[in-house]
User: Fold this.
Amino acid sequence: MSANVTNNTVTDFDLAQASARGDMAAFEMLYDRHNRRVYSLCLRMVSNVTEAEDLTQEVFVQLFRKISSFRGESAFTTWLHRLTVNLVLMHFRKRGVRLERTTEEGEIGDIQDNFRSAGERPRFVDRIALDKAISELPPGYRTVFVLHDVEGFEHAEVADLLGISVGTSKSQLHKARLRLRELLNKKYD
Assistant:
């Protein structure tokens, strides 16, 4: 496989299989292909550059240890995404970060409302403001918001990942969106 590692047409599955057999060049190629995506996900979840860098490194250490368990039943990126999310969630558990447990349910709003009324602002300013507002959310709200609205997990999946009820996931998301609106409205008032 090492001779083929320089070939950009080689699949992630092939690289994973070669890595599982000890081919370090194949593992390096997987790292090169996916480290930015893993770092970006970690950063969105923890909102701390240093922690995101450390977690990214830990994800690839875990990947190296578990690469042989990848069977190709899903896309490699899906498998790596799940590995990353699980590792970040374990990090939260070790730090003692807890989600607020609430029972209230509410209407789910649309965070883009703040941007639709601000037609003349450049789009990159909106993205910067949104990223800053997300980083200011309490950890529980931020985690649910990122998993559901950014990463696209369904409420049942978020609930399963975090060990909470579906209702709690919905409530946390609703409160996160309300808080984001407040933060963004302050920014543009």
Observations:
- The chain has a mean pLDDT of 79.
- The chain has nine helices and no strands.
